[in-house]
Amino acid sequence: LVRPDGTVGETIFGQMTQLAAAHGAVNLGQGAPGTDAPEPLVAAAADAMRAGMNQYPPGQGFPALIDAVAEQRRREYGQQVSTDEVLVTVGATEALTAAILALVPPGGEVIVFEPFYDAYPAAITAAGATMVTVPVLPVDGGFAPDWEAFEAAVSESTAAIIVNTPHNPTGALFDLEQLRRIFAGAQRADAWVITDEVYEYLVFDGAEHHALAAHVDEPERVVSVSSAGKSFNITGWKVGWVVAAPEVRAAIQGVKQFLTFTAGSPLQVAVAEALRTGSPFPSENRDSLAARRGVLLAALRQVPGIDVRTPRAGYFVLVDFAPLTDEDAFALNERITREYGFTGIPVAALCRAGSPTAEHYRATIRYSFCKSPAEVEAATAGIARLA
Ligand code: PMP
Ligand code: GLN
């Protein structure tokens, strides 16, 4: 993001949102839900504000939310979590950034599966560390890491491995065997594993999300990160968390206190209630998303020649237009926006510039189906004209 002249560029999500707006196109770019937050959560936040929860919360987070996160990890994954292992953050973004700054030394290497969420390289750069990428590529029926590249990437310089499952943008869901393989690499390198589990509830077709920390003999090596944003359709609330061994949590909190100190008192209280009680909203949200995924996939599958894989989880579907055009995804996305009225994110923007993975995905565009049913429907009209 930092250009050679020292200025900082806008995220690809901001750029593509402007592109869509400039042409009045349906914005299937940024993964920002087009349906609203659950009413009980909104009411709980409003109640908390009226009850005076309007000042700084404790640095570690409100005890009610800390308890709720520990309870949620136990209930969903059988992970035993004590209250000194939870830190509330300003979304998963702050959790990831604070964890990287706290745990990765300057000059260390961080292994990232590519394509990746764009906050990872920014935080790795801020830590003075180096990102080492491992491609996630199309395989029969989905996407999978290039294991040879993974094994080659692991070395004594590896300080951390970031695993995002369910994976943005491919919709891949890492199974237990894959997660254990990654963990074994971390053990070999004596490195941390940072899991980014923000799409933990948005898993389709009866498949299951696995929390790595619940399945290893050395859970203290794992820093688990998640957020309420996607699970409860409250991406703007920015309530996230870290689960890590007490001294690791304390180190991450030490960084977090100088990034934001604290945030979101009434929002923390509301999220605590929803998490603790096992609100039905995340599974309703998943089912409604699965329906929108179906509408978008059905439309895309009418376009002859393109490669469309069914995402197993998350907000996004990848479409490879390479068989249809020589244009790269940036040019093509702009033309589709102008001529067909819908916008996505070129996947190469979620890769290291010039990497073999970026080259592999040069004509691939990510479309988000977390938009409102009306928006998804409107996009299908444009897709039908492509067909
Ligand atoms: N990780 C991934 C993979 C994401 O897609 C996103 C966000 N959209 C985040 C982290 C950030 O989550 P939050 O909004 O809670 O900071
Ligand atoms: N994570 C969301 C996505 O991948 C967007 C978050 C952002 O705009 N930074 O689309």
TrEMBL record:
Organism whose genome encodes this protein: Brevibacterium pityocampae
Give the Gene3D superfamilies listed for this entry. Answer: Aspartate Aminotransferase, domain 1 (3.90.1150.10), Type I PLP-dependent aspartate aminotransferase-like (Major domain) (3.40.640.10)
- The protein's superkingdom reads Bacteria
Q: Which InterPro entries match?
A: Aminotransferase_I/II_large (IPR004839), Kynurenine-oxoglutarate_AT (IPR051326), PyrdxlP-dep_Trfase (IPR015424), PyrdxlP-dep_Trfase_major (IPR015421), PyrdxlP-dep_Trfase_small (IPR015422)
**Name this protein carries in UniProt:** Aminotransferase class I/II-fold pyridoxal phosphate-dependent enzyme
Give cofactor(s), names only: pyridoxal 5'-phosphate
Q: Does the keyword Transferase apply?
A: yes
Xref: Pfam families: Aminotran_1_2 (PF00155)
**GO MF term (any one):** transaminase activity
What are the alphabetically sorted keywords of the record?
A: Aminotransferase, Pyridoxal phosphate, Transferase
Please list the residue ranges annotated as the Aminotransferase class I/classII large domain.
26-340
The organism's taxonomy opens as:
Bacteria, Bacillati, Actinomycetota, Actinomycetes, Micrococcales
